[in-house]
Design goal:
mainly beta, Lipocalin, eight-stranded antiparallel β-barrel, 14% helix, Lipocalin-like, Lipocalin family protein
């Protein structure tokens, strides 16, 4: 009986050590919400005197759908820009690739690489900020 009690205590101790030592600090600060999907630009802005200042995205043409990025599961992307210069609400698209490394999103379109910090990612909002402090807020 004594050996069974010792075995039980030993098993509980080992289980406790395994449970305590296994944490998910591989994702420190990283959100687990999916980044894939179609994201419509909503706001843009920057940091002024330590405060975030956002305005409605001026690139969105009144009366047209919002400009967007679509991040696909195969790490390709499509950027959509609605422009009424030639035809009302004409859609112009560019294709590219993207990668996500922890809380960074890197996009490559037409040979131009753009890396941004993922400031916020939920099921309905994606907020990005580049090294110059330029902020873009996208919604689904």
């Amino acid at each position: 009986m004594k050996s069974r009690t010792m075995l039980f205590v030993l098993m509980v101790g080992i289980f406790s050590l395994i449970t305590i030592s296994c944490s998910d600090d591989d994702n420190d600060g990283e959100t687990l919400a999916p980044i894939t999907g179609k994201w419509n630009i909503s706001k843009v802005g920057t940091i002024v005197n330590g405060s975030e200042v956002l305005i409605d995205a001026p690139q969105n043409q009144e009366g047209c759908d919002k400009d967007f990025i679509q991040l696909k599961t195969d790490n390709t992307l499509e950027e959509g820009d609605y422009d009424s210069a030639i035809d009302p609400c004409a859609l112009f698209t560019n294709q590219g690739i993207y990668s996500r490394s922890h809380n960074n999103l890197t996009r490559v379109v037409d040979g131009v690489t753009k890396t941004q910090d993922i400031v916020n990612l939920t099921l309905s909002e994606l907020k990005l900020k580049d090294a110059n402090g330029i902020i873009e807020v996208y919604i689904k």
